[in-house]
Amino acid sequence: MVRFGIIGTSMITELFIYGAQKVSGFRLSAIYSRDIDRAKAFGSKFGDDILYFNDLEEFSLSSEFDAVYIASPNSLHAPQSMLMISHGKHVLCEKPAVSNSRELEEVIGLARSKNLLYMEAMKSLTMPAYLNLQELLPRIGKVRKYIGNYCQYSSRYDRHKNGEYVNTFRKEFSNGSLLDIGIYCLYPAVHMFGKPLRISANGVILEDGGVDGTGSILMKYAEMEAVITHSKISNSKMPSEIQGELGNILIDKIGSPEKITLILRDGTVEEHIPDQVNHNMMYEAQEFISLIEEGTFESGINSYSLALDVHNILDEARSQIGLTYPADI
What we know:
InterPro entries: Gfo/Idh/MocA-like_OxRdtase_N, GFO_IDH_MocA-like_dom, NAD(P)-bd_dom_sf. By secondary structure, the chain is of the alpha/beta class. The protein has helices at about 10-20, 35-45, 55-60, 75-85, 100-115, 130-135, 155-160, 175-195, 280-295, 305-320; strands at about 1-5, 25-30, 50-55, 65-70, 90-95, 120, 145-150, 200-205, 210-220, 225-230, 240-245, 245-250, 260-265, 270.
C-alpha cells in the first residue's frame, strides 16, 4: 500500500483521486491546502481517516504518507517537489511539472540522490488508447507528418477578459496555452519520434497577464515534420493525426485519447476503441504506484530523458515567442 498526500484541492485533484482509488495499492492519507477548512471540505468526499494540513513544512515532515501528488499552480510545482523529495517523499507532479528545464534538472538530480521516484503526470502516455496507437503505427509505413491539435476555450477566459484576477492567465504562475495544454501535443511527438533537429514557434501574447493565449510549433526532423497547435482562447473540433506513406492515424483527443482510427490507402478503415475506465487518471497512478512497489525510481514511459527533451523544447518555444516567467530569472 502506497500512502498518498495531496497538494491542491481543484477539480483535477478530485479526478486524480477518483482514478487512483481504482488502483489497489493507493491510499489517501493526507491533504494540504492553505485553507484548512477548504481541505476538510474537499477531503470529506473521500473518507474519515484523512489528515489535514495548512502548513506546508509540517505536511512535508509527516510520516503518515509515502508519496505526494502535486496539483498546485504551475510555478509552485518545482519548489514543492523539491521540498517533498528532500523529506523522503516520492512525487507525482501534475503537468507541467516545472516552469523550465533548469528546474527539471534540479528536481531530477535531487530525486536521484535520494533514490526516490519523481514523475510528471502526463496521463495520455499511460492510457490504453495511446498504447494501441503505438501498436498501429508501423501499419502506416514511413511517417511523414504529425499534427498534434489541442485548442480548448478556457472556462476561465471570460473571467479574465472581464478584469478578474485569474491565475491560469498570469505569467507569475507560469501559465499559458503552451505549458497548460500545448504540452499534451508535444509529449507524444517527442515520445514517438524523438527530439527534433530544430523548431520554429509562434504565439499570441495576451495583453493582460502576459501569457500566451494560442500558438503553434513547427518541428523539423530529418524525414518528417511535426506541427503542434494549441489554444486556450478558441476551440477546435479537429482530431490529431499521424500521416504515413501507407495511411493515416486519427487520434480523437490527444490529451485524453479514447478512439484511434486507422485509414489505409488501400481503403481499409478501422476504429479502435479500447476498454478504458472512466476516471482515466487511474493509468498514471497505476504506473507510479507500480514503480514504487517494484523499487524502480524512474518511469520507463514518462522517463527523465523524455521530460528533459520536452521541457527544453518548451523553453526554446517560449524564447522564440518572447514569453518569460519570473521562475526563469
